[in-house]
Amino acid sequence: MTITNLMQLPSGSDLRALFERPAAETGFFLTVEDRAGIEHLLRNSAARHAPNPPLLNEFLRHKLRISRGAPEPASPELVVAGCHVTYMISGEGSRSGVLTMSAAPAPGHILVASLLGATLIGMRKLQKSPLLREDGQIDIVVVLNVSAPPDHAAA
Questions:
Q1: Please, what are the domains in the chain?
Q2: Beta bridge pairs of residue 96
Q3: CA nearest neighbour of 111 among 12, 38, 36
Q4: Residues 6 or more apart in contact with residue 95 via CB below 8 angstroms
Q5: What band does 103 get if pLDDT is binned at 50, 70 and 90?
Q6: Which residues contact residue 34 at a Cβ distance below 8 angstroms, ignoring those fewer than 6 apart?
Q7: What does the radius of gyration of the chain's CA atoms come to, in whole angstroms?
Q8: Burial of 29 (0-12, 13-18, 19+ CB in 10 A)
Q9: Are 131 and 124 in contact (CB under 8 A)?
Q10: pLDDT tens digit string along 115-147?
Q11: pTM (predicted TM-score)
């Protein structure tokens, strides 16, 4: 299967069903630390600076509901806060950044308090998922690689 095939939505798909499938089908896994981090973001209104805070907050709550607990220690292929993730969004080239629970944007970081970050957390290498955009469009995101952040790679 090519990356191009991974990036296409099935024709006639029920988009709501794509987001509401149970964890056994979606395969999202959160570590205890990531679950606590998302709950902290929600308690402290970290999404208030997002383009659509109510949408992001509901998506984060939904992610908590549909995700299963990750075995500890987490697989090196699991997207967790603090990891460096390379991903591709349908119709675009590959990008990468460090996934962070911080509410403050920083160069090279992907905030969990964003629709992209909230989608990526809990995914695994080569997994694809619908990506809701702030403008209401839905794309597909696929995780291409997961690694320790560059400053921790030598440790």
A1: 23-149 (3.10.50.30)
A2: 86
A3: 38
A4: 86, 87, 88, 89
A5: confident
A6: 70, 80, 81, 101, 112, 121, 122
A7: 15
A8: buried
A9: no
A10: 999 999 999 999 999 999 888 889 999 999 999
A11: 0.79
